[in-house]
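Re: that chain you flagged

S.,

Sorry for the slow reply, it's been a week of failed gels. I finally had a moment to sit down with the sequence you sent. For the record, here it is as I used it:
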Amino acid sequence: MTVTTRPAGPPRIRRPRPHRWRAKVRDVGVMTRRNIVHIRREPLQLSDVTIQPALFTLLFVYILGAGVVLPSGGTYVDFAIAGMLAMNLVTSSMGTAVGLSTDLNTGVIDRFRTLPMWRPAVLVGRSVTDLFTSLVCATIVAVTALAIGWRPDAGIGQVLGGFALMLLFSYALSWGCGCLGLVSKGPESAQGVGLVILFPAAIVSNAFVPTQHMPTVMRVFANWNPISAVTTACRQLWGSPNPSAAVQTWPMQHALASSLLWSIALLAVFAPLAVHLFRRRTEN
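Prediction finished late last night. Pasting the structure tokens below so you have them in one place:
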């Protein structure tokens, strides 16, 4: 009996596969670039983070500033800028809801499903794009504030820390707005519901007036409102007038810690929920 042996062929070369996380980062970058290209083609999409912040800052400062007396003293301009930044970033976070709802209703998500890409990259790319637009919004508010006389009584590190804290909170909130966009029937309903929730939340806070003279129910809500905590933390970092320092509630006495806890909690709840809702919406 003879035994035949097959001639040894050339060794198989294993091509290295791209690293798992590297591929995810690449997909997120592609989705982010897509969203930025859309904004570049239609710049009016940025009106809520360019025109609105400057307009609201001027209107609120010069209209409310004439009738508000701060119990701790100081100018209303220095007091209001942190609140103006908070309100503009909170309301502009609705762009996440509108953008996701638009993509879902135009069918572009169905095209993405046919591509070999990381599914949550659509969500993460949208959130990163909105973080960039929030940075534009914060810059517009800062420039407008400096033009009307705002001067923070703190070092550059503390000033930048206040802006970073606001941007972190806005980024975390954008994931909640993303959930809203995923459960809405269309962009109009997403924007309408978002306004109903976010705008009153920004108003019933210490963003524009001290909370000491509010009715009891509103005062309790305002003192525990996460927007109040972030605003108070910024005022502390910037050395601005801060009447909430006299309020004996935990969020007002520990505003920086409260702000960070709120941001982490919002991310921990809404980011996984958004991924779950996205999968359920796109798999049906």
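What I noticed first: The chain has one domain: 49-283.

Talk soon,
D.
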